[in-house]
Amino acid sequence: MGDMGPGEDRQRIDRWIEESQYLIGRLIPTLLDDRERIKGVLEAAEQECEKLRQDLGLSQAEISELESERQQLRTEQAALAEAFIGVMDHMNQMHKPLTEILRRLQVSQPVSFNTTS
Hints:
The chain is an all-alpha fold. The chain contains one helix and no strands. The protein has one helix at 6-108. The longest helix is centred in the middle third of the chain and has 103 residues, at 6-108. The radius of gyration is 47 Å and the shape is rod-shaped.
């Protein structure tokens, strides 16, 4: 690299400038195109994200409503079970006197069923 003249240095610099201009001329449009493509992808992703946020909000509201309805149904079920237990207790209490009445009726008066009309 020792003995280069000013002409050769100038040619190298000119060639380097030409190559740089060519590369920059190809790189900048490519980078701008990539930027626009990425910008479009980002906007689409943001729109999808917003839609998903809205869907999530609606789903959370629906879950809340269903949870409230489920709790109401459980409360009603517990009340029905309690009422049924009361009815069964009442029927059990009535069973002994009715059985006693039936026994006394059978002893004092035989029951006959008329099968002919």
